[in-house]
């Protein structure tokens, strides 16, 4: 196992197209780090540069104490699990898992031991003689993971490995990957656009946007203390509500035709300044005196909970209630934040949080 260190890494394609723009990041030894962001944000390109499948235009990538910019992928001591499994269709499961070890001239008895251990770990012992076409999508992904495990690499790289699976199978495979990491304690870097995968798998989430890092932190920190409006709305389902407001006094914001209290010690916002405020859907309360008038439009039933959709001063707003809660339609509702700590304050121009 080894840490991965990126220093001002850039990737520029022909035509001066910058896919990755000056990324500096430390991935601790033994951690599970998730690169999260929308399509085209540079996360897969960054992963491929770590793997050596893309050249680095500028900056350095180090695995452990060794800078690997000019080292071939096969010499970087990494293993990669791809989105499309990348299994050899004419080979059995055993041969797929053993292939890389044979190329490295690993002794036969050692190959047999490693493949048997990985197959037992992943629950695919009974499939070793089958060809990939005889396996389900989840079983093929387990084989791809087994092929990586037998390499015993310093770093595991996962490039959206669950995106081809159905929703139920994605849930079970997430659990398998997390259990696997808990057992192996190997440094892992996982690319996804799915925030649920990031929140459930990661020790460290790296949120990317436009080829740059927006925020790095533990899943709960990124969720509860977003560094920008982008992070606030990208992470969370429903996404964080955003409304324009104005600081009217320390600890007081005027927004949506009502007044809200915020933690003035937490945010550096001057009186009289226009701001954008953010409130998570679960932090909205109904019936608060002095709150914001809410126009109730429709309800999204989710079983145990409901998502209430509507508007505040023409701006969309969503909040979550228990399924048993009864709400009247029309203009009679008033909503507010559950507490001053639930209100986030952002700079309208830069989109960055004004948190001190």
Give a structural overview:
A 6-stranded mixed sheet has the order 6-7-8-3-9-10, with helices on both faces. The mean pLDDT is 92. Helix 5 (167-184) links the parallel strand 7 and strand 8 (187-192). The protein has 2 domains: 4-233, P-loop containing nucleotide triphosphate hydrolases (Rossmann fold); 238-346, Beta Barrel (OB fold (Dihydrolipoamide Acetyltransferase, E2P)), CATH 2.40.50.140. The chain starts with a strand and ends in a 10-residue tail after the last strand. With 356 residues, it is α+β, with helices and mostly antiparallel strands. The protein has 8 helices and 20 strands. The radius of gyration is 24 Å and the shape is elongated. The protein has helices at residues 43-51, 93-103, 108-122, 137-149, 167-184, 195-201, 219-224, 229-234; strands at residues 4-13, 17-27, 32-36, 58-63, 66-67, 78-81, 155-159, 187-192, 204-209, 212-217, 241-249, 252-255, 258-261, 274-279, 284-286, 292-301, 305-312, 315-322, 330-337, 343-346.
